[in-house]
Each structure stands twice: as structure tokens, then as C-alpha cells.
Fold each of these.
Amino acid sequence: MEVAMLVETRRGALRAYNKLVKRRVLKNGELVLVLRRPIIVTHKTKGKFESKWDGPYIIEKAYDGGAYQFIDHHGNRPMPPINGRFLKKYFA
């Protein structure tokens, strides 16, 4: 009985959480900013006042699993494909 109550409570919490989650899908041609990470940074940071985001970049291709390939405004590919959780939409 206690196990059934625990399972039902977990299901209720999961349903409540899933109502608030919004799936974010980025399309080809949209402008995005890329989170600057230690793997990507090739130069010294200027401290805590430097922007944490690079860009804007243009999405060139969306892969399965949430990875995106993008190009800069010159048509160059600055880095390999990056997971969508490290991107945010750029509003010009």
C-alpha cells in the first residue's frame, strides 16, 4: 500500500513538472548565441565582466539528438556541432 502511494505521488509530481517544460526547437537560418565554455575558449578571459555568450551565429543544420551546426556571418564554421542546451536564441 505504501509503495503504491509513493508511486502515485511520483507520477503526480512528474505530470506537474512536465506541464511547465517547454520544448525549444531552433530552425535553420535562425540567429543564436553560443555559451562560452572552457573547451571552446582559446584566449584568456577578461574576468567576470566579459560576456558569457559568443555570436550571433546562423544555424546551418540541426542534427538528431539536439545538436546544431552553425556558421558566422562570413560563412565560416567557427567550431564543431554543439548541443542545443549551450545555445540561446538571438533577438536582433
Note: The chain has a mean pLDDT of 87.
Amino acid sequence: MAGLNVSLSFFFIVVAVCEAARRLSKRSLPAPVYGNLARELIGAFQLGACCLELRMLVVIGPWGGGYGPDVILTLLFLLFLVHGLTWDGASANPITSLREFLTAEASAPVAAVRAAAHLAGTYAGDALTRLYWSWELTDFHLIQNLMGRECSSALQTAVAWGVLVEATCAFFYHLTLLCFQHSRPLYRAPAVALIVTLLAYTAGPFTSAFFNPALASAVTFHCSGNTLLEYVQVYWLGPAAGKGGSRGLPGPAPGAGGREVGSAQSRAPPRANGSRWVSGRRPPPETCLGQVRDGRKKSTSPLRLAPVSHPPAPAPGIPPPRPWLLGLLPRSGSRSVSSSRAGSFGGGGSEGSALDREVQATLTA
């Protein structure tokens, strides 16, 4: 039991130091440097150090300390629960950086910096843990030092089955992240820790369920039993295929599926988004009236009535036009009023001239 207490203390110290470094770098470094380099480096270091110590308990604990799978799985769940609450959005996985580059979410230099930070952080955690083992604080560490870097391969099945197992684990892991990407860390961290524990319990006897190329490279690539090409196929190509399959599925809309009860988003009124509505509520009736189809397109703006034009009022002192004069008004393409009257009455008599002057005065007004 003393060896387990020492391991728990090691976990606590690593998480505390990484959290302090994370907060210090967040305050002192620019946002792009922190988000693309420091945060990923610290997260990968925390993951590598804790997982290597946990793997030592997996290998030596059952026959050296009598620890069953229940103890190991409980520690695994607690570790990933703490990781999810303290990582501050870091992925600590090179496959995520590769996917962001292929989908144009990140440029090539940014993706390369993140992947390098993942590998550097994981190998730094591996070096620190082996230095900690050299102190031989427990019998477990003494046995581990006697073993040195001699270890057996984590791949305990055929290469093809190993690729399938790692791809399946990566698929369900990243699918869980996709489903809970809009949830609070308080809800997302237990779900991710639970799926990691289930995958480790199911696929652990076959490939150790790494589904993280950086972690597998630091932990098992130097072990004998398989070639480097076989390790790359299982622990790099397998997670990459599983990650690609999970991204091919449609994700939930923001707030859907993972919406928190009582959140501001769930209480917000429906907002128009093109011709659709984000909320499931019925749109207001004034908007429904505006959605009129005229045969060519569908308008989503409220219905507006055109203003009614009225004829101008006559000027003071001038009588309004008489009804029988409306037929005498000129039309487009017709002759003038005087010529039409002259043609009608056979000349320009005094009676016609007076009528013409009255019509001209009315038109001028």
C-alpha cells in the first residue's frame, strides 16, 4: 500500500506543477504562443508522466503489490477526469493537429508546432518519470530499475487486428469529444474519462489502448517484439483512421445535445439563421406573414404594404377639373389638345378657343 501512496503523491505533484506552469504561461505569454505551444506542451508532459507511472503499476502491480484491475481502472478514470478539468482545451494528440491541417483549420506551421509540442512534452514526461524511478522510493521502482528499458511490446495481437483495435478506440474517443464539445468541462470531463476507462478495459489486453501516437511512441516504441514499421501502422495509422471516421459524422449544433439546463443559450429566444430557425420554437406570426413565395424566391422579411399615393390637391383659386374634361386630356403618342379640338370642330372658333384656354389653365395648375 505504501507503493500506491507514493504513486498517488507523484500524480498529485505532476498535476500541481503543470497547473502552476499553465497559469504562469497563460499570464506571461501571448495568446497564440500559449494556445499553440505552451498549453499543448504542458498537457502532453502531464499526460506522458502520469500514464508512464500508471503503466508501471499495470505491469508490476498485480504480482508485486496485489493490485487488481479495479485499482488500475479507478486510477485511470481519476487521472483522465483531472486531465479534462485542468488541460484548458489542450488536445495533447498529434492526430488532432494533423486533422486541423488537412481540414484547413490550421496552417502548416501551426500544425507542425503543435505536433512537435505533443511529442516533446510526452518524451519530457517520460524522461522525468524515469528519473523519478531512479530514486527507488518503492519496491516497484526498484524492480523497474532492474528491468531498465527492457520491456515487452504492448502489441499483443496481429498487426491488422491492432490497427483495427486502435482505430475503433480512437473513433469512439473522438466521437465522445465531438458529442460533448459544446458542454461544460464539468460534464465533458467525466464522460471522456468514462469512455477512456471502458476502452482501456476492453482493448487493453490487445494494444494497451493508447490511441495517441505521441504517448505510444514514448512508452512502447523502444520495446522489443515488433518493428518500427509495425508500430507506426498500429499506433499512428490506426488512430488517424479512427479520427477521420469520427469527423465524418455530423456533429451536434451548438447547444444541441450537450446544452446545459438553465444556460443562457437555452433561455434565448429563437434567432433567424437564413431561412431556418436555430431554436425549435414556432417563429412569431409577423415573420410567417413575410414568408411569401412569389414564384422565384422566398422572402424571410416581414410583409410590408406599399404606401398609397393620392393626387395632389389643386392650388387655391383654381377650380378642380370638370369630369367631362378627363376625356380631353392628352394621351401618350397623341396630338396636342388644341390640334385635337381643331380637328374635331372643323376650325378654331371662339368657342373652341375658350375651351382650349380653360383646359390649358387646368393642366398648368
Note: DSSP finds 14 helices and two strands in the chain.
Amino acid sequence: MPGLVRLPLGLLLASLLGTVTAARPPRLLPLLSSGRGALGRAALGSLLNTLADRVHCADGPCGKALALRRPEKPGLASGPVLEHRHLSRLSAAAALYLSDPKGTCADVRAGHWATRADHLLALLEGPKALTPGLSRLLQKIRAQAAGWPAAEKACADLPQLLEKAEGAGAPSSPGLVLAALVDHVSSGSCLRALPTPQYFVDFVFRQHSGETPNITLAELEALMQRLGVGGVAETPGDHSDHGHLRNGADHQGPVPLATLNSSSSLWDTVCLSAEEVMAVYGLSDQAGVTPESWAQLSPALLQQQLSGACSPQPRAPPRDELSQAERYLYGSLATLLVCLCAISGLLLLSCASYSTASHYIIQTFLSMAVGALTGDAILHLTPKV
């Protein structure tokens, strides 16, 4: 396994030494989803050089730190092709470089780049870990994107990356999602780590099922009662309508997942922090929220309340990992231990010839018996509060 971890790292580093650059960097997602793709040295060098051009550090180009002076070093044997089984690791390593170029350069010098890539793939494994993990990764990449060149294409967000992976046949595969991420960056597209401000308004308007595009009075009253604000206006001769409104207001079912566009449903379950909400609207942490900005920010707070994304999730009860046979075994051992302690009372017969010793021993056991019975009686008679 150590050799397997170090081999693709040697290929990555050695490829950066080449001066050949392809006209267009290769796309990793089609190669990875096909199950039989591979990267040549020229294509791999073109991809990494393109990613290095997208990253700009304040103290110099970060890609220069990825050069390896001794590609022939034992354990880092170079080859003409990067096989399909290493493409997921390549995607994770490239994503790490985009999110933290300086830290990746330090990992390269220490020989830990491939290990970090494997660790990232392991962290994103599973549907419950994939979405929050990718969201944090995109935020780190966005933080580095301040010095990137202007994007040539529209920005891609997390739902679009997951949709790309789903189209490739594996929606929960971290390797495919990271490959789609690298393809977007290498093609000149920017990344969006948070939803757009319009999403929060769309979410609120998705709560009603009316045919009109506007929220009606009945729907507004139901929405206000769900939020626990406002009162119910009663007018004479309007009891039937009022009862209908009350029934609609009392409906506390789950938030519908029908969306106005394909990228809305994913954010319905994401709990955003205060810093992330301000970042959605482009508000500075130092300047804070102005009265004018508060009117724009209110739909985000309303959406978080309606979606229940920040509500505490019930914890699953701990599972009993003991099998049926193990339960019987441990129960029998406990019963045997209690019986052995009772049989130990036969040892008192050996002390019967010593009247002085047997007297104190019997008094001791009598005291213990009285104390145990008294304590048990007190515990049973004490009322429970």
C-alpha cells in the first residue's frame, strides 16, 4: 500500500517538469466515469499547469513549489500514463491544491500530498458527509479565488457538481464530484460555495400552492401562524373562510421539496452560519449589517426558520453490538459468579471451632445483612419526583 500511495505522487510531480502544454486540459469526469480512461504525461502536465495558472499567491506563484528535482528518487518512479485507478486521487489532490496552495506545497515537500488526498476522499465518503464536506471545501476555494483571473464561464455551485456526478452514474462518489470540480476550474469557470440571494425568496414563495405567483392573504396568515407571529383577524359572516384559513395555518408538515430550479432543493437542508449569511449578500464582517441591508437579509433568516435546517436532529439510540449468544454467555457468567460468592459462606464452618473468631464473623455478616435490607427498604419507600 505505501508504494501505491507514492506512485501517483511521483507521476504528478514529474509531469510538472515537462514543458509541453496541450491546447486544452483534459476533462477528468468523462475519463473517471468511463472506467477505462487514462492520462498521458502531456495531458497531465497541461492540467496541472492550468490549475497552477489559476492560483496566485501574494508572495509568488505557488506552482513553482511543486517542482521535483529528483524524479528518479526510489519510490517515485515515473511512467508515461496515469492509470484510471489513480484519477480519483488526482482529483482530490488538485482540489486540495486549489483550496490551500501553500499548505499543499508544504505537503509536497514532506511527501504527504497523496496521503492528504486519500484522507479527503475518506472524509467525503457517504451521502451525509459529502454535502457539508464539499460545501466547506468550496468555501476554502472561494477564499483563494480572490486573486484568480476573471472567470470565462458562468459560476458552478454545489448542486450542479452533484448533478454532474449523478449524470455519470454515481451521485455519492467523492471522486466524481471532485473531478467535476476540477473540470469546471480548469475550463475557466468560477465556483459558488453558497446559494444566491434569490434562492431565499424563492424558498418562501415555494411554501404556498396557489396558482397565482403572489402570496395570498390566506397563505400569508398561515405563514405568520407557522412562524408564531401576528394574530387572526375575525370578521362577521366569514366563519367558513376563517376555519379554512385556520386549517391551513395548523398544517405543520415537512417543507415540500418541489423547487423552482434544479439547484434549490439541496440548500433546503443546509444550516448557514451568520458569517455565511452575510457572505451570501456580500456584507463585510467589519462593517456589519446596515438598516438597508437588513431588508435584504431578512429572507435568509425566514428561510432558515421555515426549513428547519438548524433544528437539533434527534440522536439515534445506541445499538447493542452483542449477539444473542453473547448475551446468554455473559448472563450465565454473572449468575455463576453470584453463586460462587454464596458458596463461599461454607468457609465459615471451618471457623466454628474458634468461638471468638466465629462470633465476630457472624456479627459482621449480620450487620451487613441488616444494612443491605435497610438501604433497600429506604430506596423502595422513597417517592420518585
Note: The chain has three domains: 2-192, 197-307, 348-385.
Amino acid sequence: MNKLLILRTFLIITQLLIFASCGFVEDDPVAGTAVLEVADLESDCEVDTERIKNIFSEDVKADIACIQQQLDLFRYVRRQNQDLLTKPDIEKFIRQFFEEDQQDDIISGLDLLFQLNTLILRDEPDQMQVKNIEPFFELLRVVNKRAVTIFDNIEVMQKLKSDEVELFKKRRKVLEEEFIALSKEILGLVKNANGPSQSINIQKFIEELSKDVDGFEDFQKLISSLLFVKKLFLGGDRNFINSNELLRAFELFPIFAFRGFDVYLQKEEFFNTQGEYYESIADNIEVLVRNVYEHQNEEFILTVTDIHNFIDELYKESDDDTDETDEGIFSIFRNSEGDSPSKKEERDILKNIVRSFKRDIIGGDTEVFNYSEVEKTVALIIIGARTFENVTKLNDLVEDINDKTPEERVIIRGSFVKTFSELSKKARELIVGNTDFPKRMRLLKFIQSIAEDTDYIDLDKELLNSLFSMKVAVVG
């Protein structure tokens, strides 16, 4: 994947403008050069174009400074407007002086560069103000500095064991501080941009940036599906993002990045009990949900197919996959005999659950979630997470109870009754008065559908029917 196509384009632009300003326009450009020599321009720096590709994992501030030093030569290039760098001027230069087999790739990268500049620094499409070169490179320096620390921490945290909890907590704190600092520094630069809000087609932008990815068609499908996240949290058109929405994204970045990685990096063995572990997950989910953008109730947000595409990606085999087993990911699907579905079987189970959930629990169009239905889904996810948290807390209380003395059992029984009462009260608070909670659910049909779709969830159908008959008799 060519992750730094935009940055590489900047290097190419720098090179061609150096040629123009020094009277070298009659020379043929050197193809495939890894290091740009700029000594003839009274500069002693070199830019290693291979090293700078590691901007997220290696300190490349010297290379960034060197590139910026050469971009200062823009003021010597004759243009219609000395305050502007325009895409047509550079494109014309590329067509005239670069080899034909290079031109399309360079111009494609040039287009991405100007789109990004338009979105972040609010310049008109296909042009960049010379004064915006400095903030653009300051943005690169900030990203490089913070990203190196962030990814170093994540790499270390992924490898920590259960006896390294204190080190995990320290690294977790550093990670949170780095996310906050990165957001603050980027906002300081972006908020100074003048001009009206500009917009770009984010789907086409990401697809063009990622066209070298292996299995691009599948990746393209995934990106298209995941754009519902942009609409859900930033508002606006699903396929477009504007400068004001980008500001909101940077403001929310510390929350989403930290909470998202927290769920990803936390391990059950880092907690005293299983209940504490699931409480942490539920807390993180609630924080994320509080930042959902408010839409009109009937506004389209996502489809069942979007979720299915994400599930496909979750179970997609990777060349780096070292897991030799074919067992599914989630222990909840393990039956009473200890058998687990294969990854492919589990993938299909999850897809069927999503479809049944939309049809029987949420209702409405069986293929589409509007905003009010997303709110209902989120409410149920939170209730489900809290319920699972509470059940594990009760399980923690009675764990190994047969090994306890009679006196200890009496104490545990008292704690169990007290905890059960508290958890029941919390459950009522979550449901009663919650306007997002579905008023009507075909719960029996939903559970029966799940049971019919898999042999790995043990459900007694007669018992289920009996329980729901009791529900009708007691509460109607």
C-alpha cells in the first residue's frame, strides 16, 4: 500500500521546482533516484525518500526540514500569481519535462495533495497559497513526533503479560497524553486556516490513496461500508467531508483513539475479576456513544450489508496470521461439549444474528438502519454490555463457592443478594424511561432464529416456549 503518496508527490514537486529555478529545465529528470541532491542550491541537506516513508514509526524531522527548505524556492518560480501555487502550472511542467510513464502517477498524487490542502487549510480547489506551506510542514512535524511515540507504546503494550499490569497502566497514561497533545497541536494549526469550509469526496480520496493495496476491490468495499462511521459521528453526507467536520474529527480524536485502543489493548488478565474487565469495556462504549452526532430520526445511516462487509474483514485471512487453529473468536459460541465453530462458521453465524436482530428486534426496513434505529441498537448494546458485566460480577462472587467454609458461604450469600439487588436497580434505570429502548421486540423469534442457525448455541426450544408462555400469563 502506498501510504505516503501525497508526501512523495511533495518531494517530486520540490525536485521539479528546483530544476526550474536553477535553469535546469532543459535537462532530463533522473528517474528512480532515492536521495535528492540539493548541494547546488547552497544547501547541505539530503532527503532520504525511503526513510521518510516511515514517518509514523521513525524520527524524520531532519528530512521534513530539508524538504521545506527546498519548498522555500517557490518564491523564485515565475507564476501568474506569486502568492499561489496552482495545480495547472505544475501539471503543465510535469507534462513537459517528466518521462511519459511517470506523468500520470505524479499528477494523480498531485491531485490528492491539493485535495488534502483544500480540506485542511481551506484553499480553493487546485491551488495552495505559498503562506500555507509552513503550516502544512508543521503539521507533518507534529504527526511525525507524536505518531512515533504512540506506535512505540502500542507495540510495547500489545506484548505485555499479566504480571506487567503496572507497566501497562503507565504506558496507557502516556498513550492518552499523546492523543490529547496530537489533537491540540493539530487543532492549533487547522483553526488558523482562513476561508470558507471546503469539502472533498472522502470515499474517492481514500480509494485513490489506497489503490495499490493488495485485494483492492475488497478493501474498496470495506471503505465504502465503514463510511457510516463518518456520518454517525460527524454528520453531513456519508461520502463527503468538509473542513468544519474535519475540525470536529480532530476535537473528538483523543476520545475515539484512546477509548478505541483501550478496548483493543486491554486484556482480561490485567483486571482483578472478569466483572471489572467487562465494566471497563462497557464504560468505553458509553463514552463513545455520548459523542454520536444528532441526526433526523428517519435519516439513513447504514445498511446490513455494511455490517456484513465489516464482519468479512474481521475474519479475513492474513499472510501474517500465525493462529494455527481454525476455531472461532468468541467463546460464547462454544457449546456444552466444548466444541467451537470454525472461523467461517462463526462469520456466518454473526451475519445471521445481525440480520435477525434487525428484523426481529429493531424492526422497520430489514436492510437499512435509520438514525432512530441506530439509537435503539446502541441502547441495546449498552444494556447488553452492562448486563454481561453484571452477570460476570455475580459469577465472580460465587466462584469456587464449594471450596468455602460454611461461614464464608453465609458472607458470600449476603454479598450476592446485595449485589443482585443493586444490579437489578441499575438494570431498571437503564431501561425505564429510556426513549431509545425498543417498544416492541419479537424476542422469541430472534432467539429461535439464532438457535436454528447454529449447533453451537445450546437452547432448549420447549423450555424457551414455556418461558415465553409464562411471560404472556404474567405480564401480557
Note: The longest helix spans residues 371-398.
